[in-house]
Every structure is written in C-alpha cells, then in structure tokens.
Design a protein that fits this description.
By secondary structure, this protein is an alpha+beta fold. It has 11 helices and 12 strands. The strands form 2 sheets. Strands 4, 5, 6, 7, 8, 9, 10, 11 and 12 form a 9-stranded mixed β-sheet that branches. Strands 2-1-3 form a 3-stranded antiparallel β-sheet. Strand 7, helix 7 (227-243) and strand 8 (251-260) form a beta-alpha-beta unit. The protein is globular and about 60 Å long. The termini are far apart. 38% of the residues are buried.
C-alpha cells in the first residue's frame, strides 16, 4: 500500500494538531528520523498514519509503508526532517514538545526562521513564477518523453533556465524586453570574473527594479557532482544579490534555483546543514547569518569569497516565494524561487 497522494500539507498539519492534543503512543515514539515543525519533533510514520484519516476517512495502516517513504513524502510537502540517535531519543523527555537536540550533526536551524507574508508586488510576481515553472516542466518533460532534441535532462543548459524566466517576465509579467539587461555589471563584487548579475530589469513607475541570479545544478552523465562547491555557489549567488545596490530600496532581488535529485538529496540531508534552505515552505524564510555559513566546508567558503573578500559576509533574509517538486520518470527536480532581502 503506497501513501495516498491526496494527503496534503493541510492534512499533515491537522495530524500534528491531534498529536499535540493527545500525545504519541509509546509504540509510535520517534526513532532516528523526526518531522520538525515549529521547533518541535514528531514521528513521520505516525504523522502520515493520522493525516490519512483527515484525507481519506481512516488512519493508514502503518505496516503498509516504511519510515523512508513517510520521510520522502513529508519532504515533498515541504516539511523538514532531522536525524537523531537512539541515545538522544532516550535522553529526551516523553513530551511531544521535546525541543530539537542542539547537536549540529542533527540539523542547523538558522536564525529568524519564520513566516514572511507576500506583499502586493510578491503576489503579482507569482503569475510570472508559475509561467516560468510550467515552461521548465514542459521542457524537461519533452526530454523524458523523447520529444526533444536532447536525450537526457543533464544536457539542458542553465542558459535555457534564464531564457524561460526572460520569456515569463516579458509575457505574463508585461516587462518590456528593452528594459532587460543580461550579464549586468555588479560593481560591489571585486572579482571581475563574477562581477555580473545574470539579469537586471530596470524600474518603471508601476514596479521596482528586478535583479536575478539563476542556477541549474544537475549531475552530468556519470560524473560526480562537487556538492559542497555547488552548495557554496548557491549561497554565493544569494550574497551577490544581497550586495547589489544594498542601500537602494526600489529593487526586488530573486534567486532562481533548479536542481536534480542529486543536489536535492545532498541539500535535504540534515547532517550537511542545508535542509532549512531547500525545505522552506512558500512565504517562509530565515536570516543567513555569518554563523550559519562559516561552519561549512572550506570549498563552500571559497565560493563565497569569490563574491566578497570580507570575513563578515552579508546577512540577508532569504524567503521562499515559489516552490515546485515535479517528477519526470525516475528524475526528481526542485524548482525554487527565493526573495533575497539585504
């Protein structure tokens, strides 16, 4: 019995409310993987069991699906998962409101993790993001179904992702193509090789300027992906956006991220400390503090230093404004658009 696909985020939240009210049965206590929500932890299988009651009228038989299936399903709904050792479980209290253990090996919770409701302009941009995502999905689906000039998804280029956003901006978004500047000069970045924005859209009376950085990260053939470098490049782009005309108020800054299952799995692994970033629900975000990034591997830090030579990196707020997790055959793709606030 597979987990029913009609179980939604709302059903999971109702299950969590029930657990808060009634507690967790002794034989359903969490073991090594935990659902993290509002600073509290819950057993993934038991949450799915109860969520099915709200989706389909009765609890799901927990013997018919695995913890890994529950974890994967919850992640696709945008929930965070942390790992914990059996010893740490024994040392915790029996209450539902047990706090997440502080060991960095479990999960690094960033500062100011919280909700950031969209403003009027954010809501206008949502239709642009929807169009962009649909174009990306159609393009990748064509490859999977052998209707494309390309044979594999990894052959698709990052330039294509940029073009899809350009098209969405100039059609659904009503942006004049003459207002769009590609590879736009970024004077705040000292390294000339990296001192350009992917896309800049000049302001108009009815909208602010727009600044974009975009990434498409995927495994190329059988070659291994240098994942810490790739993760560093992600946050380097975020810092680049934060630095761009930092004191100018009339700019909206967006990081557009498309990744395959190889980077999704790496970023979702709580031991690496990136899970809060990739798992953010729409309209939630956190502050990228210096403490959050400085503990990462040296290859990660080297990517940041390509953007700024300062040790006191900028500390922007990163807000997920759009997310999709389509599947193409056995390929998983993450589509994320983050707003970066200096």
């Amino acid at each position: 019995m597979a987990i029913p696909r009609n179980i939604s985020q709302e059903h999971v939240l109702r299950a969590i409310e029930e657990i808060e009210k009634n507690g967790i049965p002794e034989n359903r206590k969490p073991r090594t993987q935990l659902l993290v929500y509002n600073g509290r932890v819950y057993p993934p299988k038991y949450v799915i069991t109860l969520a099915n009651k709200y989706a389909n009228g009765k609890p799901l038989n927990h013997s018919k699906f695995t913890t890994q299936e529950a974890v994967g399903y919850l992640r696709r709904l945008g929930f965070q998962i942390a790992r914990i050792t059996a010893e740490e479980i024994r040392e915790s209290t029996d209450k539902v409101e047990t706090e997440i253990p502080s060991q960095s090996s479990l999960i690094e919770l960033p500062a100011n993790l919280g909700e950031y409701p969209p403003d009027e302009f954010d809501r206008k941009m949502y239709s642009v993001f929807e169009k962009f995502a649909s174009l990306v999905e159609e393009r990748l689906e064509a490859i999977t179904e052998k209707r494309s000039e390309l044979e594999e998804i990894y052959q698709e280029s990052e330039d294509t992702i940029r073009y899809m956003m350009f098209y969405a901006l100039t059609t659904v978004g009503g942006v004049d193509p003459l207002d769009v500047y590609l590879e736009y000069l970024h004077p705040e970045v000292p390294n000339k090789k990296y001192a350009k924005l992917d896309t800049f859209v000049s302001p108009k009376e009815d909208r602010p300027a727009l600044a974009f950085e975009m990434k498409f990260q995927k495994k190329i053939g059988n070659n291994a992906v240098p994942k810490p470098d790739n993760a560093g490049a992600v946050f380097a782009d975020i810092l680049k956006l934060a630095l761009f005309r930092k004191e100018q108020g009339n700019i909206e800054r967006y990081f557009v991220y498309v990744a395959d299952e190889h980077m999704i799995n790496y970023l979702s692994n709580s031991t690496h400390g990136y899970e809060p970033f990739i798992s953010l629900k729409e309209n939630t975000g956190f502050k990228v503090t210096r403490e959050y990034v400085i503990r990462k591997p040296p290859t990660f830090i080297r990517q940041l230093k390509k953007i700024t030579e300062k040790e006191d990196f900028p500390e922007p707020i990163v807000i997920c404004r759009f997310r999709r997790d389509p599947k193409f055959g056995n390929k998983e793709i993450a589509i994320r658009i983050y707003k970066v606030v200096p």
